[in-house]
Amino acid sequence: MADQHLRTGPDGPSGPWSLRRWLATFSPRRHRALLAAQRRAEQAEARLREVIDILPEGVIFLDKSGRSVLWNQRFAELYRSADLLVPGERLVDTLRAGLMRGDYPEAAGQEEAWITERETMLSTPGGRREHRFDDGRCLMFEDRRTSDGGVVGLHVDVTEMKQQAEALEAALRRAEAANQAKTSFLANLSHEIRTPLNAVIGLADVLRRDELQPSQRAMLGTIVDSADSLNVILSDLLDYSRLETGHITIREEDFDLAALMDRIAAPYAERAREKGLEFKVDIAERARARVAGDPHRMGQIIGNLLDNALKFTREGAITLTVARGARDERYFFEVRDTGAGFDPADAERLFARFEQADGSATREFGGLGLGLAICRQLATLMGGTIVAAGQRGRGAVFTLTVPMKAAAQPAEPEAQDEPHPFTRTLRVLVTDDNATNRKVAELILAAIGADVTCAENGAEALEAVKLGRFDLILMDLQMPVMDGLTAIRHIRAHEQSAGLPRTKVVVLSANDLPEQLEASAAAGADEHLGKPIRADALISAIVRVVDSDDSVGLDSTVHSA
Questions:
Q1: Are 372 and 392 in contact (CB under 8 A)?
Q2: What is the per-residue pLDDT across 322-370, written as a single tens digit (0 to 9) for each?
Q3: 57-157 has which CATH code?
Q4: What CATH topology corresponds to 253-406?
Q5: Which residues of the chain have pLDDT under 50?
Q6: What global pTM score does this model have?
Q7: Three-state SS string across 18-59, please?
Q8: What's the CA gap between 350 and 330, in Å, rounded?
């Protein structure tokens, strides 16, 4: 009977696992091969587990039903579930059991919402996701489908990386705030120093119009040169700070290159003659063109190079040469002098901030060592380069190369330098909270016979305009009670509402950055001059803004006195 049961078995007499069939097919040799294959498979699995376990990332394998098949120690550590993971259990059920057990009490009693209670899940580029836990941990994971429909999950602890990124971001914000505070401080410092400096230079210009003895004129020249040097230092400090924070941009406008070079070189030519130096400007015919670029920054670079040449040259000559590339739109500006020069090995170092050709305690020439650093940064912003060459005691050569396209607009007729005769005296309203600056403006305007009224702030200027008519308003910007820009806007609104003609407004301010010039124009100013103000610059500005048909009297013989 037993034999009958074994023979038939569950698969019947012909079933594959009947005892007789198994005995008929059994072979000790085949059995050994099967055991060897099993051992190899076990060894391969053991090696795979060892490889997976030494990985620094958490790894888990799930079948197509989401049941845990294999995971490494790191995965259990990341999810703090070493005693919960069981082969064949669904991973979500396993982790939820841990939550319900109290490992994550904040999610107790929750069902499918356990993930959102326990963590914040974020999508990231590349299909990756992030888990951010309440305890501050952050895990990034990526799931890949296997060939049989299961999942291989790779989980990485990015907590430290996130913390470092957040710390760097906070440090960047602090650095930006510090840079902004530094820029604001330097801007205020510049304004506060330029205000009295304006009086020094303005009064010196007025004194130059008087008959002076040679010794007095020489002392006056020293005063002006010293004031100019202080003004350059302030400008360099402010510009360098703004370059560091990326607040300087290159603007493009059409201008006559040769005219700009002549205008920039003119004051340096006068200073060179006073020192007994030969000064030449050589502009190639091909370079005498209207171009599109930033004339302000171009003038700043060339002016700095000429100023350095004058500073370091006691005898000989200074030459400014301008040329244009034969086949492209590159322009070359070369400033050559016969001065102190420098060692060739120091050429590149000169363009580093706070560096100078002579940095010794006994150095003869002053300065902060920022000018050339600013020049190089500005040249780079314009898509150009600047290099230096020289020999100690045999002079130096600085070469600026800048690409500039041809101007889009044709040249406009040039304004006359000398004022046209007018039929009556200028009535000018001078608005400035500094009494000395008001006095300087009065003295300069007295040279053209103007009738001057003064106001100490924008509110007084507005009241003066409402009470009487003026041909011109000189307006400071930083003032108590009402600032200059607000006053200009109120004056324009008053003129429009009352149907009055537009009064010319020239801003005189120590704030002369490009965006501040734009703010003045937007408020309704006709021109913006930066302090310190020179007498000839102010009078030239007045001539430009006052039209010849305004029936305003201006005696050109007084102007030239």
A1: no
A2: 999 887 789 999 999 999 899 888 888 888 865 555 544 334 444 456 7
A3: 3.30.450
A4: Heat Shock Protein 90 (3.30.565)
A5: 1-14, 98-126, 359-367, 415-422, 548-561
A6: 0.53
A7: CHHHHHHHCCHHHHHHHHHHHHHHHHHHHHHHHHHHHCCCEE
A8: 24
